[in-house]
């Protein structure tokens, strides 16, 4: 935990990311942290282990819009643990508080140009912070580059390292990449193998019109129509079960 | 780094002042002066006491596995790998909306001879309501949470140091603006005026505070996949989560949907032909709504989602399906 000194009695006070006020435990003074002029470094701890990240990827890959069995058929070629830097600016623009999130590193990783500070427990990032073997992506854009151009007055500015797992995988000969946010488990991907809705739509629409027609037939030939309806129920059930399992 | 701290002391007597975040008026405890704090005074913050332990959170998760159309073997093969509490910040904004909404309602009646008559009923409604609005104050990620359902709980800061706390990263003024537009929209809909010709509604923010709400995150695995769900740390209910679906339920749904929907549509068309009444169209519309809803479940039911997720598949637009139904039903008239 980072420390600052009490301006009244010089005793050390712990500085945490979320607090604006603190009480000195030695002299009892109320201290206000004026963050307007300083730049802070924060990092969000990893909540997902490598296995969790791969499992989260498999959960995502098993989703209904992804290619069938992508979770089982995707072959993972690399998994990397990284800290990706973004700037978080809190500014006073004509009396309104505005939050700006800007990239601190140039990247082509999926999701990271949507730019956000994911939900997480912001920790002060200093020499004592344990990155647990994650690669620190170096910020290659200066904070001052943004400070000169943003509107209003600064209330707080920070560089936030957010924890990600990047997973490369191949499916049917093509390579893809996803990023798993290691704090809140969100999965980012720009492209992925998709699943066609055609078979699902066909079963539903064909079944619907079959019953519609049989409904008309039933007014003329009741018994044959009822038998056909029973057969259609069985057919729709098995075809749809096959579609849901295999396509 | 010493220059980022400002010691607060009474300008009259020099005594140390105790002021809570979010308050602007305070009395000096030494000389009794009434002081006004200006500038960045922060937001009044409360934290709710966590009422669950790991066992009850996992119990809630396991009970949730058995509900609804989730994979039938989830209760047997699902395994909780991790369960921990976090504090998540929410903006809690109390607003008042007041004003007038004027307009009219149209009622169309048709008698047995097929003559239709449209009547306009003019309305002038007063709106005066106090509302509560909440929104998550950080990025929700894949937690499936956007707003609070429960605003009451025992307030304490005891656990705030022990439980990981997600930091607020959104703007208070943005949250206030969302609360005001939410208040106007809710005020407008409370007036029940279908065609609005004039409105004058004002929303004011009465109080903005931040609630740190305890949420239990439960991670579990099912067939090598890792899922996540959240449990309310005050009420013990499952708030959001993803779970594997079951192909059997998907095919049962589409079988029921196509048969009931198709027969309802057929019945509606036949009724319209036989009686010439418009009520038959309702059957056609109903048939399409049933078909649409079951199709969405058939197509996307391989994952069951509860909560406010960005990729949640919504059911079909009822009005759109209704219009298709009207077209088909109308063609037989």
Question: What would you say this structure looks like, in words?
Answer:
The complex is a heterodimer of chains A (247) and B (333). Chain A has 247 residues and is an alpha+beta fold. Chain A has three domains: 2-32, no CATH class; 39-188, no CATH class; 198-246. Chain A has helices spanning 50-61, 70-73, 143-147, 198-220, 222-246; strands at residues 2-5, 12-15, 21-23, 30-33, 39-43, 75-93, 96-103, 123-124, 135-136, 153-171, 174-181, 187-188. In chain A, strands 5, 6, 7, 8, 9, 10, 11 and 12 form an eight-stranded mixed β-sheet that branches. In chain A, strands 1-2 form a two-stranded antiparallel sheet. Chain A is elongated. Chain B has 333 residues and is an alpha+beta fold. Chain B has three domains: 10-42, no CATH class; 46-242, no CATH class; 248-331, no CATH class. Chain B contains six helices and ten strands; from the N terminus they run E-E-E-E-H-H-E-E-H-E-E-E-H-H-E-H. In chain B, strands 4, 5, 6, 7, 8, 9 and 10 form a seven-stranded mixed β-sheet that branches. The longest helix of chain B has 29 residues, at 247-275. The mean pLDDT of chain B is 84. At the A-B interface, strand 1, strand 4, helix 1, strand 7 and helix 4 of A face strand 1, strand 5, helix 3, strand 8 and helix 4 of B. Strand 4 of chain A pairs antiparallel with strand 1 of chain B.
């Amino acid at each position: 935990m980072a420390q600052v000194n009490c301006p009244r009695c010089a005793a050390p006070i712990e500085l945490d990311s979320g607090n604006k006020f603190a009480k000195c435990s030695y002299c009892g003074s109320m201290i206000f942290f004026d963050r307007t002029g300083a730049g802070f470094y924060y990092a969000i701890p990893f909540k997902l282990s490598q296995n969790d990240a791969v499992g989260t990827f498999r959960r995502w890959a098993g989703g209904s819009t992804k290619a069938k069995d992508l979770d089982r058929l995707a072959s993972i070629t690399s998994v990397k643990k990284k800290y990706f830097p973004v700037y978080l600016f809190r500014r006073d623009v004509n009396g309104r508080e505005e939050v700006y999130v800007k990239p601190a590193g140039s990247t082509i990783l999926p999701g990271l140009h949507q730019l956000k500070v994911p939900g997480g427990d912001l920790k002060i990032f200093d020499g004592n912070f344990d990155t647990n073997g994650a690669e620190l992506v170096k910020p290659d854009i200066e904070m001052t580059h943004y400070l000169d151009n943003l509107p209003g007055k600064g209330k707080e500015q920070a560089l936030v390292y957010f924890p990600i797992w990047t997973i490369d995988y191949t499916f049917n000969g093509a390579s893809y990449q996803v990023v798993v946010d290691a704090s809140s488990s969100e999965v980012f991907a720009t492209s992925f193998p998709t699943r066609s809705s055609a078979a699902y739509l066909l079963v539903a629409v064909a079944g619907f019109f079959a019953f519609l027609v049989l409904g008309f037939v039933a007014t003329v030939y009741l018994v044959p129509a009822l038998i056909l309806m029973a057969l259609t129920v069985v057919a729709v059930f098995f075809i749809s079960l096959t579609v849901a399992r295999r396509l | 780094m010493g220059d980022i701290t400002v010691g607060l002391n009474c300008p009259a007597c020099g005594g140390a002042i105790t002021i809570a975040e979010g308050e602007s008026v305070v009395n000096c405890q030494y000389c009794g002066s009434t002081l006004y704090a200006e500038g960045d005074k922060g937001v009044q913050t409360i934290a709710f006491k966590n009422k669950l332990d790991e066992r009850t959170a996992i119990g809630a998760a396991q009970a949730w596995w058995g509900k609804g159309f989730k994979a039938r073997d989830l209760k047997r093969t699902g395994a909780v790998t991790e369960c921990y509490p976090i504090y998540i910040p929410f903006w809690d904004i109390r607003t008042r909306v007041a004003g007038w909404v004027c307009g009219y309602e149209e009622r169309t009646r048709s008698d047995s001879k097929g003559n239709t008559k449209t009547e306009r009923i003019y309305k002038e409604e007063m709106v005066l309501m106090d509302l509560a609005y909440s929104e998550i104050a950080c990025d929700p990620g894949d937690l499936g949470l956007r707003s609070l359902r429960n605003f009451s709980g025992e307030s304490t800061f005891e656990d705030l140091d022990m439980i990981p706390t997600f930091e607020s990263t959104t703007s208070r003024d943005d949250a206030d603006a969302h609360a005001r537009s939410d208040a106007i929209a809710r005020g407008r809909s409370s007036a029940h005026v279908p065609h609005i010709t004039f409105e004058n509604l004002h929303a004011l923010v009465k109080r903005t505070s931040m609630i740190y709400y305890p949420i239990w995150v439960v991670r579990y695995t099912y067939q090598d996949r890792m899922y996540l769900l959240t449990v309310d740390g005050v009420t013990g209910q499952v708030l959001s989560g993803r779970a594997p679906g079951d192909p059997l339920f998907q095919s049962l749904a589409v079988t029921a949907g196509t048969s009931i929907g198709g027969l309802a549509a057929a019945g509606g068309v036949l009724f319209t032909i036989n009686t010439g009444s418009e009520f038959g169209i309702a059957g056609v519309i109903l048939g399409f709504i049933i078909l649409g809803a079951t199709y969405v479940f058939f197509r996307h039911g391989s994952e069951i989602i509860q909560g406010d997720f960005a990729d949640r598949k919504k059911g079909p637009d009822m009005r759109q399906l209704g219009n298709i139904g009207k077209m088909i039903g109308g063609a037989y008239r």
